[in-house]
Structure formats: structure tokens, C-alpha cells
Design goal:
Layout lengths: L13 H33 L4 H15 L3 H11 L9 H26 L3 H9 L4 H31 L11 H12 L2 H31 L4
Length: 221
Amino acid sequence: MTYQLNFSALWPYMPELLAGLWTTIELTVMATVGGVAIGICGAAIRCGNHKTLRALWGVYVEAIRNTPFVVQLFFIVFGLPAIGLKMTAGEAALLAMLINLGAYSTEIIRAGIQVTPKGQWEAGRVLGLTRSQTFMRIVLPPSLKRIYPSLVSQCIIVMLGSSVVSQVSYEELTFAANLIQSRTFLSFEVYLVTTLFYLLLSVAMRQLLLLAGRRVFGSEN
């Protein structure tokens, strides 16, 4: 049995695939920026002196890291409306990705902070800086430099995981691919092209983030 490839039949649907790709890019950019910001705040809390906040943030981190992303997404989409918190599919998708990346980046950044020599904290006190100022100006920059490659990898993992949000009818790349496949029945062609789009997006995202890291930290990562 032979199978005749028919990529030409996909051309009329290319605008839909590209629109889905652009939606995925937008979602990834917002989730990456917001998730890393949450991670920095979370790492500061986890390394701080407030025991209650440390414990509460620890519960959040463990809950997210030990449950599937799709369950987290479904809880936001289908669970929260039961208590009156309703949102669009796009808002739910972004919130789920923010919460997920925030938890993982918290632990990645915290790992970088924990190996910071105590002398840096002492240097901040000698200079008359508050603990917050010492953290932001002295401790955080070298800590981010140490864990930056791992943080980049986690951001890419979250981007690839965004394909799950198609399950709640958010019109990103995988949703577009599923829709086109249901119309054309060209499963092999549709998902091969979609796979290549995700591969190119992953490579481009990694290179852009590493380039940004070299410009910010001034060295190879």
C-alpha cells in the first residue's frame, strides 16, 4: 500500500496555520515574561525570612510541579467558574502557563541563589543596602547568570506545552492543525508541517533568549 503525499492541498489553509503560530508566539512571550517575573518574586520569598510566606509559596510550587499541566488548565477553565471566576479561553490559557512557569522558575532561580556566597549578602549590609536592595542589585544578577540556560530550557518546555490549550478551544497552532486535519483528512501532512513549525519556533526561541542572555550578562551561556 502506497501513500501519496499531498502538501499542495494545505496551501489554502496556510493562513490559518500561520495565524495559529502567531497566537502561540504571543501567548509564549506573555507567559515567559510573566512567569519569570513570578519566579523571581517566588525565589525571593523562598529565600526570605518570613516563614509563613515561605511555606505558602512552597505549597504552591509543590502543587504545580506534582500535577499535570492539562489538569491545571482544566481546573482554571472548568473549576473556577463554579466559584464565580469566569474567563475566556485565552485568559485561562495565559493564566495556566503563568502559574506553571512561575512555579518551575521559582525553584530554578532559587537554586542559583542558594549557591551565592554569604559574603555577597554581607557586602550589601556593609554598603548600607537593605535586604531587598542587596537581593536585586548584588545577589540576583549573578544567580540568574548561573541558571540562565536551565531557565531558557524551561521556558521552551512551557511553550511546547501550550499545545495543550487547544483542548479548551483556544485557537493556537495545534488547534489550527486539528481543525485543518478535520477538514482535509491529511493527517500526515498537517501534523508534519505543525511539527516543523514547533521545531523552528523552539530553535528560534532558544537562540533569541541565549543571545539576550549574552547581551545582558556579557558572556556565553
